[in-house]
Design a protein that fits this description.
6% of the residues lie in helices and 57% in strands. The protein is mainly beta. The protein is globular.
Length: 695
Amino acid sequence: MKKFLLPVFLVINGFASAQEAVPPSFLSDSADTKPLQEAVVKAYEQHRKLSDVGAPISIVSKAALNRFGNSSILPAMNANPGVRMEERSPGSYRLNIRGSSLRSPFGVRDIKVYWNEIPLTDPGGNTYLNQLGFYNFQSMEIIKGTAGSLYGAGIGGAVLINSMPAVWEKGVTVDYGRGSWNAQNINVNIRTGDEDHRNIFSYTHQNSDGYRSWTAMRRDVASWETQLKTSEKQSIHAYILYSDLYYRTPGGLTLAEYLKDPRQARPSTPTQQGAIQARAAIYQKNFTAGFSSQYHFNEHWQNTTAVYGAYTDFRNPGIRVYEIRQEPHFGGRTVFQYKTRLGENSLQINAGAEAQKGFFETRDYANKQGVQDTLQTDDRIGNWQYILFAQADLRLNAGWTVTAGASFNRNTLQLTRTSIIPPVTNDIHFANKFAPRISILKKILPDISLYVSAARGFSTPTAQELQKTNGLLGPRLQPEDGTDYEVGTRGNLFHGKLFFDVNAFFFYLSNTIVQRIDSNGVGYSINAGRTNQHGIESFVSYQLADAPKGFFSSVRLWASHTWHDFHYRDFSTGGHDYSGNRLPSVPTHTVVTGADILLQPGFYTNITFTYAERIALNDANTAYAGSYNLLGARAGYRKAFHARWKLDIYAGGDNLLNTRYSLGNDINAAAPPARYYNAAPRVNYFGGVSVNYLL
């Protein structure tokens, strides 16, 4: 690390001697650095300031992403209350919003994800979030809780990803980062055109050997994106993304193995090969192309329509089977918007539809030391889903805003097993679902709002959840059905220095889908009765100093707290009654605090502390992953030179307290012995440099 940082500090000294005056906007990351309460959010098609939206929403800005090492969005996501992102090994993500990881042995479940205007979640309900590299994210909006009134299935919430920078600057950016365990991240970003004719070409390469044995990863992402203003009425947005990802999967450890050597991969047994012997890994290639058009008919009417096509090639030599999946799918979304004045009041109506169709093929083979062997199952899976939605927003002159919306949802799945003679087809039709939502917001002071909301949502089983991990059909599943009640307040005090965002929710879920793993290591899903999920999520920040010309240009302190009280209301299975037990995978308390300091010469420091309480690992609450404390920091020098050059050099570390903890645990693993634990990295370091040249 010292050999890497020394020449970069010499570069700083060379630049500093030739510094010239530059525009103030060039010194900041982007418009994302403005206060959260002033940020305009797209959630629920409202396009309003965060303080004017009656919903639990968190914003991850570009500035928030750049507080940490530029290799993963995970720490920036986890700074938000109610959100828990885990990385079981480099490249293997699991995203949890309010307990949604109950359905996530890996990947993303129960959450609808959009990349720009198109669904990144496929028609089978799965999201390959790991197809995106760090530099494919410019900002994100996280909608927590039931969002089905506008976004369909997914009671965990929705994530809206934006890949276009908030401030357009034509130029070239080159980023290079290094870290512990031979981690490396290289990014080249080329921006051409002007404000009305934008083109972005980007390429990212990332690799790491990983903390544990058998955790090496490599990811290459290439993308092209264009945004054109063709006339005063119309703008067009098009994008192409290709991702090639490979990562090894070390597997879960028993408690004894975890305590003896947390870095080891899952060992072999007399009856089963281990992760290294099985060459367990993921080979994943994704291609996505999309096109959207926004057209303003007149001052009242506008339409946004997006269509896309995507293809995923997925190969997974696992402990038991060698799985191969080809998953082409396409879809689109259209939204009509009408705005008008009603005296001193205003009305906005959004109505539209979204549809997706998938043609999936899945083959499972025996895995003979990393080589596909005898064919076990061969399936053709047809997914079809559509939603129709409408929403009305009435803003009254007394500071009231009433939002009411609903969606009608249709989901079908056809599964044909061709590996048996004659082939057997299962047509699975889930009942049509109606997902309403109502929200009432009141501005109790000019800078403070209070809101309440009620919503009903649902989530259908994914194609993977309907089958066991050995390829056989699992138990018949019903969609989850949930009702959510929210009350929240957000705003600012002391002339905008203090920002707060607090919400409480009461969520009742029926037919909860949970993951189980039998004694042979085969995973499957079941409906687990009813759950009560209540919580309070809080975020507060204070701008201690804000003086661009002072030595301390900016000093900001912030804290995020999550309290989740999640229990089974009634759940009995296999002769065991788990009613009243805690839901596994969710800590009761999580606290994240931070300090962001910027000095006038250009030096900056970001410090983050995280505390997470212990979590239950099974429905019986007989096994737990321990609580942990994490300390991370990033320090750097960011400055603009000669009005065209901008340099950012940084170094830092994660888990500076060298805490031993497990992240991305395997929930409800069968015993004995249960393999719950996936050891997270101990103390590690990173450094990097970013050079931006304006054309």
